């Protein structure tokens, strides 16, 4: 009888630490990024992390970038008014993003208002 081969993500690919072992923040952060295959040098990840500084006022503090997939930028807004303001200024937002990250193909901007 053939033995089953496990495929998929390896849960135990990192050395387990005992509760007494100190863990530096940088080591922990690097392990989390590696485990989830996140590359900080990727332009899409840079866009998500620095969205508010790229777009600037008046959106800073009211609109957050939650993701990017297949040419669509997903934003979370504080309320519906901010969502409408994003749609009114979507061409300007796209222009600012293309100015910083010309390699990102940006077709649409979707907004949502998180429920409270």
Describe the structure.
- This protein has 116 residues and is an alpha+beta fold.
- It has a domain at 43-112: DnaA, N-terminal domain (GMP Synthetase, Chain A, domain 3, 2-Layer Sandwich), CATH 3.30.300.180.
- Helix content is 37%, strand content 16%.
- The protein has five helices and three strands, in the order αααββααβ.
- It has helices at 25-35, 43-49, 51-55, 80-88, 90-100; strands spanning 63-69, 72-77, 108-112.
- It has a three-stranded mixed sheet.
- A hairpin with a 2-residue loop joins strand 1 (63-69) and strand 2.
- The longest helix is centred in the first third of the chain and has 11 residues, at 25-35.
- The protein is elongated and about 55 Å long.
- The chain starts with 24 loop residues before the first helix and ends with a strand.
- 10% of the residues are buried.
- The model has no long low-confidence stretch (mean pLDDT 81).
| First-to-last CA distance | 55 Å
> What structural class is derived from the secondary structure elements?
alpha+beta
| Total beta-strand segments | 3
Give the proportion of residues in helices.
Answer: 25-40%
What is the highest CATH level, the class of the domain at 43-112? Alpha Beta
Oligomer: single chain
Cross-sheet strand order for the largest sheet: 1-2-3
Shape: elongated
Average pLDDT confidence is 81
């Amino acid at each position: 009888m053939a033995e089953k081969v496990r495929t998929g993500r390896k849960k135990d690919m990192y050395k387990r630490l005992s509760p007494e072992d100190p863990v530096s923040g940088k080591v922990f952060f690097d392990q989390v990024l590696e485990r989830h295959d996140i590359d900080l040098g990727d332009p899409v990840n840079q866009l998500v992390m620095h969205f508010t500084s790229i777009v600037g006022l008046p959106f800073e503090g009211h609109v957050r970038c939650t993701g990017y997939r297949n040419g669509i930028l997903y934003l979370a807004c504080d309320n519906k008014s901010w969502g409408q303001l994003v749609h009114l200024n979507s061409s300007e937002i796209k222009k600012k993003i293309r100015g910083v990250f010309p390699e990102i193909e940006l077709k649409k901007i979707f907004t949502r208002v998180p429920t409270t």
